[in-house]
Amino acid sequence: RLLFLLLYLLFLLLSMTTTIITTLFSSKWSKSASSYSSSFLFKSMRRIGTKALVLLLVVLVMKITSATSSSREAMRRVGFEEDEFKRTTWERASFLSSSSSSLSRRSLKDVHLGFSHSGETKPVAQTKLSTGLTIEHIQKIAKDNTIIVTWANHHYLDFARNWINHVQNRLGLSNFIIGAMDEKMYESLKEEFSGGVHTWLMGSQGISKEAVKNDFGWGTKNFHQMGRDKIRLIRDFTRSGVNVLVSDIDVVWLRNPLPFFKRYPVADVLVSSDQLRSETMIESLKQKKFMVDGEGLEFHICHAASNIGIMWFLASRGNQELTTEWVDRIEKDDNLWDQSAFNDLKSLNGGCQTQVDGSGVQEAYGDENKKMRVKMGALPVSLFANGHTYYVQRLHERERKNAYAVHATFQYGGTPGKRNRMREANAWMGEEEEYFRGKFMSFTPRVERDFFRSSTESGGNNNNSSDSFEASSEGRNDYIDGDKRTVRGGFDIFVERGWPERDSKFPSIPTKEEKVLTENERLVNFQLAQINEALAIAKHLDRILIIPPILCGIDRVWFPHYGRFPGSHLQLPFICPQDHVINVEQWRNKGKFRERSFLAHPQMPKGAVSPDSSARVVVNGKRTNEAFKKSRTIPMEIIPTTRHNADDKTKISLRRCFEHHDAYDSGNDGKVEACDPSQNVAIQNANTVVSLENPAENLEALEQMLGGEANSKKFLHFDTMLGTTIESVAKPESSVIPDYWCCHMKGSVRYNPDGVKGELFTTKS
Questions:
Q1: Residue 55 to residues 19, 546, 559: CA-CA distances in angstroms?
Q2: Which of 17, 158, 184, 759 sits CB 3.0–4.6 Å from 430 for a disulfide?
């Protein structure tokens, strides 16, 4: 159009010049001719000017029409209908801050779009994005050209509360925004967090208005529709011109991750992983030079499936192409899982065969000519942990690392299972005050001593003569209720299947009769039977039971295996998550309980746990209880005798409390663990101590034997359940719902504590 205009103006200029010259020469310079020439020249110039003005108006109209058409076409490409294009987003996007000021919007020409190896990001024509936000609103929230985004429906309100409390209150970050998938969630966020939380009504393009409020359930149709909303959200943010950290709502942020990401300025994408072992130093000669403070990326992006729960995107053209194609793929195939689609794109056209240099960043996402379009890295699984490396293996503790984040994956029991995992690790800050009200009960659990028959306790003997935590004059920190904290040997049938033994050493467990499986059942059932007795007593005393730590011999996986998750570095035996043995999802409305680490809950009211608020119960009836004599407390550490080098890497830690750094101050001296009632100093130094000389005949008699003072205390701790009553008081309505152990080659096995409860009450005078 511009070229046409220039040619036309040139033609008019030539015409005018020719007319003037012809007129002047034909007049023979006469006066009359001169007068005529002036008149003719004026008229000619007026006609030419009129034509030029008309032409300019026509071109201007064409330009406006074309721009409007292009803008609407761009809106159509990101999923907007015509009425959505006309509607403003500003009414839906709300910055909930009393101190917020009115900032003028910047045009797209003013947006700094950032760079990566892929080149400068190209701005799109629209400022409104398909998920309801505007680019200007994103830029207002961003700091250092970076924003953090998550989203949730009302079912996950307490998860949003936990996420906000960590990101905002613990880490001090404010450049984040939460997408509300339903109106109830949007209103709840505004009401509860008025004064500093950015949110907007994100909605859903594929889930009904009623269903979007509820639990989607992993793998359901609505779960996959939610995944599509998520990927459209990611695509929109990569078009905003700012770098973005995308986080699922069930991620706990323990440290500020942004400085870590900035160590890799050429990486378009950094993504978390389902990898179950650390490979940050698998080729130390290559990788060591890229480590910073002992931290680095995993060796290869394709050694395990990427998990899209934690993703870092630079504002790059390559990321725009990647996320656009990602959305296109999942919208064309309803059966395609969003995470699988990302892994397919990562490896597309040779993306997994690119060169590695040890930095952890490599090219990926090839085009048809096998030209790679982004650079990508896998976040370290000890620092940006999944549910197995953190909650089960506790890899960050073994490697002495300070984890940045943990994602609630590899767990059981649905949403309640996720919540309970975070509570057990003292990584949950989503409670209301009601959670800490009432009175609580705890007890010290025991395991059968014959699991230690090949062991000797470090520096001590195997007798059970001591009756309390204070039994040893050698120093209480060396003992747990009189038993040595560290044992040498024992549990060999489990130890030999744990790391560092190779995965290939054992085949998958063939049947339920295999000894390693029956021994694990015996180990766990003995503990669950004690828990059921305690639940019945707690219910009668109108108390809430703090579930004790549970020792498991083998891992739980959803397919046949040999004892631990293949590929993992899990040492056996281990303190297992509650959802490994108890059906948390089915039992949550039936039983009243608190997680094993409740005493160290980060939201526990200050001073609530104290010697004045506690009572300790010494059960002397254990002296005649055969089960007590044949058992001991769970040690804190096992030194395997089947391995030659008893160094820190081969020692098996059975610590109850999770180690936290930066976001938490555990105050743990390495010996006494405050989260465990059996070791908590305030509980064990309780000002009220009650001795039960004989087992109680029934629950009413037990309540009377405890006395009014002990019953009035907020925390009541029994040194054992064995010998507390003369017979079982466990009742089905208060007992746990045991879950399945999975899996041997022919199926699963449900734990059955009822089958052993009779053994708990055998007495000998």
A1: 21, 84, 75
A2: 158
654: closest CA among 626, 632, 686, 629?
Answer: 632
At 215, which amino acid appears? D
Residue 76: which pLDDT band, with cuts at 50, 70 and 90? very low
Tokens of 373: 């379009």
Q: Which residue has the tokens 């000519």?
A: 369
pLDDT band per the 50, 70, 90 thresholds, residue 692: very high
3-class SS string, 561-584:
CCCCCCCCCCCCCEECCHHHCECH
- Entry pTM: 0.80
Note whether 736 and 531 are within 8 A (CB).
yes
The whole-angstrom separation of Cα 718 and Cα 705 is 13
CB 388 within 8 A of CB 564: no
Kindly compute the dihedral angle of the four CA atoms of residues 311, 316, 317, 320, in this order, to the nearest 10 degrees: 30
Q: What's the rounded Cα separation, in Å, for the pair 507 and 504? A: 7
- Give the whole-angstrom CA distance, residue 413 versus residue 429: 20
Angle formed at CA 568 by CA 567 and CA 570, multiple of 5 degrees = 145
Q: Which amino acid is at 546?
A: I
What are the b/e assignments for 584-618, b being 16+ CB within 10 Å? bbebbeebbbbbbbbbbbbeeeeeebebebbbbbb
- Find the helix packing angle between 157-164 and 183-192, rounded to 10°: 40
User: Is residue 577 within 8 Å of residue 392, measured between CB atoms?
Assistant: yes
105: nearest Cα among 89, 121, 87: 89
Tokens of 449: 């001593």
Burial 731-742 (b: 16+ CB within 10 A, else e): eeebbbbbbbbb
User: Are the C-beta atoms of residues 403 and 256 closer than 8 Å to each other?
Assistant: no
Token pair of 18, please?
Answer: 């020719």
CA distance 375 to 658: 35
